[in-house]
Amino acid sequence: MKLDTQAFKALKDMIDGTSKKVIAKYKAENPNVDENVILFTGDSMIEFFKLDKYIPEIESLNRGIAGATTKTYKDHFNDIFGDIKPKAIYVSIGSNDLVLLRKTPLEVYSNVLDFFIQLRAHYKTVDFHYISMTPVINEDHKLYKKIYVAGRSNEDIIEINSLLEVHFNKVGIEFINVYDALVGDDGYLNENYTADGIHLNDLGYQIYSNLIKGSLINK
Q: Which fold has domain 5-216?
């Protein structure tokens, strides 16, 4: 169920406000970041990903922003990343482009590729990975929170994931498929992994992190 004009404005205003605070925090912290960290960046799936809890064995850095679109990173790239020198970057981005930028799946696919071009121009020798977009719950489900799911569909998410997987496989960027492990028998986000129909709970993040850990070996 897509948001009406009033709900869309409320969501956008909320995200604009929280994003500014998070970006300002990252900008202030960047000068003190150690080199050779493993950097995680992207939307709420990353900001809410408690790296110290779920992947404590690595030296990691979280640069996720809840509600972020590819445009968020394009417009605030230097403030978010500063002079950080990571040895690997894991990215989860795209889902919010469907809602907040009102883009089609093909346009979201293009936006994600453009963001990777920007990243690779800045980090020329870094190892890149893309974490697939995650599913959402059925809008008729009791856990469905319209303000967060905001009309995005699994059909669009599957299309974007498929396009990105083909492209990243061609160019040698690892595509980490977390979507399939989070889907229930009904084809939607498993209710055991979420409290609001889109964001992951502790059990969901255990699944999410276990899939990522496989690519972290020898990092």
A: Rossmann fold (3.40.50)
